[in-house]
Amino acid sequence: MGTTWSTIGGVLGVSLGVTVLVVVMFSLGVAAWARGGGAGAPPHGDRRGRTDQVATAAAVACFAACLAVAGYGIDLIIPG
């Protein structure tokens, strides 16, 4: 029984790529959430602008993508 180094390298490459993707998506989500004003009300009763709503929607999409990747990883690990 030998070690298939190309397979180990492939797993390493995919794992590293997915890790970088999740970190970037989470970082973009945090940045968009901050730009959109978070979940709080706007100061002094001002209405939220369209850019704030788009930023919040982008943040939610980024967080949902991170959650989907994490859920898929858990599904792969835990047989069910």
Characteristic key phrases:
80 residues; elongated; mainly alpha; 2 helices
Would you kindly provide a written description of the structure presented here, covering whatever features stand out?
The chain has 80 residues and is mainly alpha-helical. It has 2 helices and no strands. It has helices spanning 5-35, 50-77. The longest helix has 31 residues, at 5-35. It starts with a helix and ends with a helix. The mean pLDDT is 89.
The level of helicity is over 70%
Order of helices and strands: HH
- What integer is the average pLDDT? 89
Rg computed from alpha carbons, rounded to a whole number of angstroms = 19 Å
Question: Which structural class do the helices and strands define?
Answer: mainly alpha
Residue fraction in strands: under 5%
User: Can you count the beta strands?
Assistant: 0
Shape field: elongated
Main β sheet profile: none
State the separation between the terminal residues, measured CA to CA.
30 Å
**Total count of helical runs of at least 4 residues:** 2
Instruction: Name the poorly predicted regions.
Output: none
Helices, strands, pairings?
Blueprint: H1 5-35, H2 50-77
Outline:
With 80 residues, the protein is mostly helical. Helices cover 74% and strands 0% of the residues. It starts with a helix and ends with a helix.
